[in-house]
Structure formats: C-alpha cells, structure tokens
Design goal:
Layout (H helix, E strand, L loop, with lengths): L2 E6 L5 H15 L3 E6 L6 H5 L2 H10 L7 H6 L2 E7 L7 H8 L2 H5 L7 E8 L6 H15 L2 E2 L8 H5 L5 E4 L10 H22 L1
Helix pairs in contact: 1-9
Bound molecules: flavin mononucleotide (FMN).
C-alpha cells in the first residue's frame, strides 16, 4: 500500500481544511495516510491576539504532531503552509529544519513531494510560497510532482505549482469546488506516482 503523509501548519484553519481533504482523497486513491500537524511556535500572546487563531489552536492542539519518521515512512509527502510574506511559515520551516539527520542519511530522497498553500489576496504570494517550499525538496533529492495542467480541474483553480486558496480579508472564505477538485486531483496524482516509483 502506498504511504502518503500530509504534513501542515495552519493558524486559522484554512490549511487544516485543505490537509483534511487531501488526506481523504489520498485514502480514496488507495493510500495509507498520516495526517500530521506541525507544532505551533508562536508565543501565547500572539495567538491570543487573534480570535480565529486562538479558536483553531484550542480546537486542534491535540491532533497528532508531525515527526521526522512520518517523512521517512512515506512514499509521498504533501506539505502545507499558509503564506507568510510570500514565504513558508516559520512553523513548517522549523519542522523542515529539524530533518537534518534524516537528510544526511539520504532518507528523504527519492520520494514524491508536492505542496499546498493559502493567501489572503489573489496575488499575495501563492507561487512564491510554493517555490520557496520546493527549494527544500531539491536539497532532499525529492521528486516534486506538481499538478501542472494535467486535468481539466487545473484550468479551474489555475495553479500548476500545487494547490492554493485565497481566503479573503477575514480569512474565512470556504474552499470552493475548484479548490476541492484540485486537492483531490493532487492527492490522487502523487499517490499514483509514488505507486509507480515503488513498482
Ligand atoms: C505574518 C503574516 C503574514 C502574511 N503574509 C501574507 C502575504 O504575504 N500575502 C497574503 O495574501 N496573505 C498573507 N497572510 C495571510 C495568510 O496567508 C492567511 O491568513 C492564510 O491563508 C490563512 O491560512 P490558515 O487559516 O491555514 O492559517 C499573512 C498572515 C500573517 C499572519
């Protein structure tokens, strides 16, 4: 059975929703799935200053946390992060930065990887965030399997680099049909590629 790890950080729930959808789609595609949250790093006062962040933190603080073993275990890994100034969040980056021992042993290489992100605005940095995330994957020796425009759904969401969502000003725009279709497609695509690699 192909093993898929969905590893994400989310402050206010958008990336969490996307991660859950990817995990469900990965299971439908026949994979064994680990859905894992990376630990929060922000100080308590920063979280408390934002009601949506506090609510999401409290609601998800007991979810399974990502470990290096989840990446080593997986045949395919999907990393998710909200954009931070067009870049990867420090929380996900911190997790990636703890993978040095596994990287040095070559345990992160030769796997399938792709990414997902969300921004407040349409041009707020979705592409730059995914490209920044992929810098790390090159160092792993990973195989980035971007969705490209390999399915009609990609002409609806329009992001060949991964999957992304625009949350709008209140960070509460729900995922639409275009994003859901693109998430399902990306999960199925990486699972299928990983299965072919293992064969
Ligand atoms: C410090 C910080 C920096 C951000 N930078 C950007 C940005 O550059 N562009 C943008 O569109 N949104 C930006 N945002 C908004 C987040 O990307 C948005 O809140 C995210 O999609 C929410 O995802 P989440 O609900 O999973 O936390 C920023 C938010 C924070 C807190």
């Amino acid at each position: 059975m192909t093993k898929l790890a969905v590893i994400y950080y989310s402050s206010t729930g958008t990336i969490h929703s996307m991660a859950k959808r990817l995990a469900e789609a990965g299971e439908k595609a026949g994979a064994e799935v680990r859905l894992r949250q990376v630990p929060e790093l922000a100080p308590a006062e920063a979280i408390a200053s934002n009601a949506a962040w506090s609510q999401h933190f409290d609601a998800t603080k007991n979810e399974p946390k990502a470990t290096a073993n989840d990446v080593v275990w997986a045949d395919a890994v999907l990393f998710g992060t909200p954009t931070r100034y067009g870049n990867v969040s420090s929380q996900l980056k911190q997790f990636l930065d703890t993978l040095g021992p596994q990287w040095m042993q070559g345990l992160l290489a030769n796997k399938v990887y792709a990414g997902f992100t969300s921004t407040m605005t349409a041009h707020g940095g979705q592409e730059s965030t995914l490209l920044a995330l992929y810098n790390t994957i090159y160092h792993f020796g990973g195989l980035i399997v971007p969705p490209g425009y390999t399915d009609p759904v990609k002409f609806a969401d329009g992001n060949p680099y991964g999957v992304s969502h625009v949350t709008g000003g209140n960070n509460d725009a729900p995922l639409g049909d275009a994003q859901i279709g693109a998430l399902d497609h990306m999960a199925e695509r990486v699972v299928n590629f990983a299965a072919k690699l293992s064969a």
